[in-house]
Design brief:
The chain is built from one helix and four strands, in the order E-E-E-E-H. It has one helix spanning 54-61, and strands spanning 2-10, 13-22, 25-36, 39-50. The chain has a four-stranded antiparallel sheet, with no helix packed on it.
Length: 65
């Protein structure tokens, strides 16, 4: 996965936006990471979806504005 952006939410937690490929399809991953022993570890808290759905995902987020 290629890290595209991140948001530091607390001293030991961040949210990371990544892009990668899985089984031949491009995937988008938004996941929470936590700091353990000076290294950030991915948690199960997150979402992973097909990159073809990015426009629909952004439309869905518009309701928050």
């Amino acid at each position: 996965m290629e890290k595209l952006a991140e948001i530091q939410t607390t001293d030991n937690v961040k949210i990371v936006l990544s892009k990668g490929e899985y089984r031949g399809s491009e995937r988008i991953d938004i996941r929470q990471y936590y700091l353990k022993d000076d290294e950030y570890i991915a948690t199960k808290k997150g979402i992973n979806f097909n990159a073809e759905w990015v426009d629909q995902f952004l439309d869905m987020l518009e309701v928050l504005r």
